[in-house]
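hiii so um. not sure if this is the right channel but i have a protein structure encoded as tokens and i wanna go backwards to a sequence. like what aa goes where. can anyone help
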């Protein structure tokens, strides 16, 4: 997978990985591989007695996770853990809205916070959801994501109701949908894009 100057190599066999790394170093004379920023993750492994790889004689360090285009992938392939990293921009957006509401004396107008949340907070919890959000698309998991918990916490705080208030009642009062709805729609859109690409190449 190549995007700009970020390159990720994936193989099932260690031998194939070393071959790819060796070819990368030999054939691309104008490409400089920064080995200090290059890392190896052995997926679904115990992390012990794993193969060691090198590029141009420089050994690559092994890690339990790596970041690619803002997404974090763990060797255990735990997507729920990866979803936790999406909470940071989500919380940052929620904080900016609360500050804006306070500074402009709009605390007594909750509809303003709710509209801003749809515009800024919800999109902040969308990045990469086609990857890490798939585990939360199953029936009965609408509120199991850490982001869903933060979303509902924001809505309940805006309404000034207890955190024990029924989630569906809060969503309906606020005119919001569960985040699962947006993740599902985004995943379907990506799936359709891939299908159209396959049809074009046939």
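sure thing!! here u go:
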């Amino acid at each position: 997978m190549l995007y700009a100057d970020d390159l990720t190599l994936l193989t099932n066999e260690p031998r194939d990985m070393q071959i790819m790394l060796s070819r990368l170093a030999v054939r691309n004379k104008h490409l400089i591989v920064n080995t200090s920023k290059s890392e190896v993750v052995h997926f679904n492994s115990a992390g012990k007695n794993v193969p060691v790889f090198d590029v141009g004689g420089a050994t690559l360090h092994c890690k339990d996770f790596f970041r690619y285009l803002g997404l974090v992938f763990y060797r255990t392939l735990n997507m729920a853990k990866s979803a936790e990293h999406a909470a940071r921009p989500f919380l940052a957006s929620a904080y900016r809205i609360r500050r804006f509401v306070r500074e402009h004396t709009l605390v007594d107008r909750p509809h303003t916070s709710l509209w801003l949340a749809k515009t800024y907070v919800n999109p902040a919890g969308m990045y990469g959801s086609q990857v890490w959000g798939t585990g939360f698309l199953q029936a009965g998991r609408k509120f199991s994501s850490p982001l869903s918990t933060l979303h509902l916490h924001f809505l309940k705080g805006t309404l000034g109701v207890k955190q024990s208030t029924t989630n569906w009642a809060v969503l309906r009062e606020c005119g919001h949908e569960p985040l699962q709805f947006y993740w599902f729609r985004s995943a379907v859109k990506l799936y359709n894009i891939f299908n159209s690409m396959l049809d074009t190449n046939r």
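oh and The chain has a mean pLDDT of 86.
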